[in-house]
Amino acid sequence: MLSQSYFGRGVKNMDDDNKKVAVDHLKTHVKYPATAEELKQECNGMEDVAEDLRKDFMEKLPVGTYNSAEEVMKAVGWE
């Protein structure tokens, strides 16, 4: 199993970096309140985030309306 990326960074670090980009997007590019459907549409546009992380986000985000990025992160288990 490959445990290091081409650039010598661990896979976990790459996952953390992707999550940081996604969280930054939630904090700076989303207008709240936002529904789960709106957030999922935004997630589809985050091409700088790995596809598997976007898929995970869309599968875990419960239906509802969110008032902040912190609420979204808690709902998907990213806190």
Outline:
The chain has 79 residues and is mostly helical. Helices cover 57% and strands 5% of the residues. This is DUF2795 domain-containing protein.
Describe the structure.
This is DUF2795 domain-containing protein. This protein has 79 residues and is mostly helical. The protein has one domain (11-76). It is 57% helix and 5% strand. It is built from four helices and two strands, in the order αβααβα. It has helices spanning 11-28, 36-44, 51-60, 69-76; strands spanning 34-35, 65-66. It has a two-stranded antiparallel ribbon with strand order 1-2. The radius of gyration is 13 Å and the shape is globular. The model is unreliable at 1-11 (pLDDT under 50).
Number of domains: 1
Give unreliable regions as ranges: 1-11
Strand order of the largest sheet: 1-2
Instruction: Kindly report the oligomeric state of this protein.
Output: single chain
pLDDT average, as an integer? Answer: 83
The count of β-strands is 2
> Which series of helices and strands comes N to C?
HEHHEH
Shape: globular
The radius of gyration is 13 Å
Q: How far is the first residue's CA from the last residue's CA?
A: 28 Å
How many helical elements?
4
Largest sheet: 2 strands, antiparallel
